[in-house]
Amino acid sequence: MLSPEIFNFPAPESLFQVEKFEGKVPLNNQNINNFHYNHLVTIIIPDSAKLEQLNEKVTQDCSYYKILGLKLEDLVSLKFICGFIRSGKLSLLSIDRRIDCDTCFGLDPYGQLLVTVDKETYQSLGLEGSISHFTRKLKNHFTITVDLADEKLIKNTSRLSKLKTCLGRLEKCSVIVTWKPPNEDICPSSIAKYFSDLGYVVKQCTPNFRRHTVYSKVPDFDLGSIDVTNAKEFAEWLGFVSIDGDFQEDPSGYLSSYVVPSATGVAKKIDCLQWRGFFTATDIKEMIEQIIKTTNLANLPWISIYIQGFSDSPVSWTNEEQHYYTNGDNGYIIIFNKENGLFCIQKCSRKRYKDVNKYK
After folding, report:
1. Ranges of each domain in the chain
2. Tens-place pLDDT, residues 231-264
3. Model's pTM, two decimal places?
4. Alpha carbons 349 and 14: distance in angstroms, whole number
C-alpha cells in the first residue's frame, strides 16, 4: 500500500545568500572561519590554468589521522587539554555515524566539545544539555556543549573528574583528528603519538584527489555587477561541472537535459580539481593563498572554490546545529578574480518538522 499523499510533502527549504567583496579574498570572512568541519574542496578554473603544484601541497599539508574506537573520556584529561586543546588548534570529529539516530560529537579549534545524543542516552549521562532545535515538540534529541578550554574547568578537579565519568558512559567511536601546533618547531604528528601511546590504533590519512576536464560554454556574467539570480545560475553551472556532467546539447534519449544559461561564444576547457578529506578553516585559507600565488589572476576571468561540510557533523557554522531532518547540504562557494568576488552561501532552513511517526 502506498503511503498517503507523500507526493504532497514540500521539499526542505534552502537558503542561498550572496555576499560581494572587492579586491583580495577576505580570508578573515566569518563564512570561512566559522565553518570548522570541511570535507570536500572543489576548485574550478577556466582556460587551462596550471596548478600542478597545488595537489602536492594539499596532500602534504592537509594530512589528518583516524583513531579507531576512541573513548570520549580520554579527551578530558589535563595532559590532553593543556597539551593540545589550549595549545595550538585541534579539530576532531566522529565518523561512520548517523546524525539522526547515533551519538555524534565534534571538537572545534576553540575547545568547544559538542555531543548530540538521543533521549535515553541523555538521561543516563548526567550532563546538562538542551533539546535539539529540530525536536522541540518530540523532545527526543539533545545537544551537550562543554568548553574544554575553560580555565575554570581545569582548576576544578572534581568537576573534571565528574565530566570524565559521564563521558565514559558513551560508546566508543572512531574519529578523525588534525592538530595545528602553536609554532613550527612542534610536529603536527604529536597528536598521533599521544593517542598511539594510549594504545589506540592510529592511521594517517591524506586527502583523496580527483581531477577532470570538461568543455563547455561559460555563462555570461560580470563579477562586479552580478545579482542573486545570475549568481545562482552560475553556481548551478559550477555544480554541473563539478560532477562531470554531459554538456552535449542533443537531449535525445534523455528525460531531462541541462542548458548553459545565457552563454555565448565557443566552448572552453574547464579544469576541475577535487579533494575529499578533513580540512580546517586554516587549511582552506592556505589553499586560497596557494591558488592566488600559483595562478595569474590578471589573465583569468574568474576562479571558483566550493567548500562542502560533513553531512553528519553535529554542527555546520559555529555551533549551529546540523540539519539532520533535511540533507545537511551546508556549504559555500567563493568566486573571484583580480578585482572582485563573491561568497555564495548555501544553508538549510531551520524550520522545525512535524513528527514523521504520525504518517506511518
Report:
1. 13-62+208-249+259-352, 64-205
2. 888 888 998 899 888 777 665 655 567 777 777 7
3. 0.87
4. 5
